[in-house]
Structures are given as structure tokens and as C-alpha cells.
Amino acid sequence: MSQYYPQQPSPFYPPEQNPEDDYYDYDDYDYDYDDDDDEDSNDLTKVIGLIVAGGCLIFLCFGCCVLAGAGLWILDPGSGLVETTVPGSDIGLSFDDPAFPDESVVNEKNMKLTILDVNRNAALPTVAPSEGGELIIVTVELVNLGQEEANFNERDFILLNNFEEAYIAIPGVVDGALGRGSLPPDAGLEGRVVYEVAAGEFDLILSWDGGPDTEPRFIWLE
């Protein structure tokens, strides 16, 4: 019968270890290297998260602005549009700075006035000028640029001299007189207005008062 003899360990096992080998412990080295990778990965994830969050915030703000603008446009379609100046509405606003004879002026009711002709020292069979006076016939054009009917009256037109002394229109003394009435939207008319002024009076300015809620407009006569 055989007997079991425990195997004697070899005198060379386990191998002798050099104390300096601990410095080159591959397990520890690998462990430290993995820590650096995880930390870099975490930093990169945070940066990507911040970028995504910032982009979402910008997109959200932009969407809110678009929705707000759409809401305002629905309530008032003209509120989101840039207000444009009607040509002629920003000239002839004062006696000291009148519009030129070939320029058209537009008042707050979107009525446009243009001087078509000035007939100085005119002769009319129905009106004889007084001594030292002369007749002037001013032919004007009115156009309603607005969306509502607008009134006009030849008495709304006066002539002013250098001292702002006023000459009042003489109504109904000439064929084609402007008279009074109303203009529907996109309609226009021509009419003549007659004045008696001092003979040789120059540098006259036509003043036009379009009625309530409007400011006078001024055009220099050629």
C-alpha cells in the first residue's frame, strides 16, 4: 500500500521579491491610470451637458420671442411692423420751414395737397381788385390717401405774407372753384382758390388747415 507524502516546497518557491518591485506594481499603475480616464470623461460629460443646456435655453428664449411676436401680430397685425413715414408728411410743418412749390404735403388724415399752378395778377369778370391790389388764383390738387372719407373746404386755405398777415380765400368767384365737400379713400380732385393780395406781394406761403386733429401745412408759392 502506497503512502501519500506531502510535496515539499521548492526552496526557490515563491520567488524572491525585490522591495523595489513595489514601485513598479502594475496593478497600482493601471488603477491610477484608470482614475485619470474616468476624471477626464466626467469633465467632458459636464462640458457637453453645459453646451446642451445652454443651447436648449437659447432655443427656449427664441421660441418665447417668436410666440410673443405672433401673439402681438394676431392682436394687432400692424404692431410688429416698422412704422413707415408717408412721403410728404414730414415737410411743410411750419411757417419758417415751408415745403417748396413742387413738393406735396400730407396731413394727419392722410390727405395730400399739391400746388398745380399759380396765376398772379389774374383777371376775373366777377371780381374787380381794389386799388393797389391784385388777384391770385391758386390751383390745388387734393388726394385722399387714407382709408376713411375726409372733408375739405377752400376756406381751410389762406395766404400768408412775410409778416404772417393772412389773405382769406374768396369763395365761388371762379369756374372750377375748390368749394367744399368730402373725398372717399383713394379719390382726388383739382380746384381753384382765389385771393386778393397787395400788388407786388411776393414770398407768399399757402397755409392749409385740414381741420380737427391735424396740424397746418405750409407751402411756399413760386
Can you lay out the helices and strands and say which pair or pack?
Elements: H1 26-75, E1 105-106, E2 111-122, E3 133-144, E4 150-153, E5 157-160, E6 166-168, E7 180-183, E8 188-198, E9 205-208, E10 217-220
Task: Give a structural overview.
The longest helix is centred in the N-terminal third of the chain and has 50 residues, at 26-75. Mean pLDDT is 80; it is low at 1-7, 28-33 and 78-83. The chain is of the alpha+beta class and 222 residues long. It is elongated. Strands 1-2-3-8 form a four-stranded antiparallel beta sheet, with no helix packed on it. The chain has a four-stranded antiparallel beta sheet with strand order 6-5-9-10, with no helix packed on it. The protein has one helix at 26-75; strands spanning 105-106, 111-122, 133-144, 150-153, 157-160, 166-168, 180-183, 188-198, 205-208, 217-220. It is built from one helix and ten strands.
Summarize the structure.
The protein is an alpha+beta fold. The protein folds into 2 domains: 19-75; 105-220, Immunoglobulin-like, CATH 2.60.40.1240.
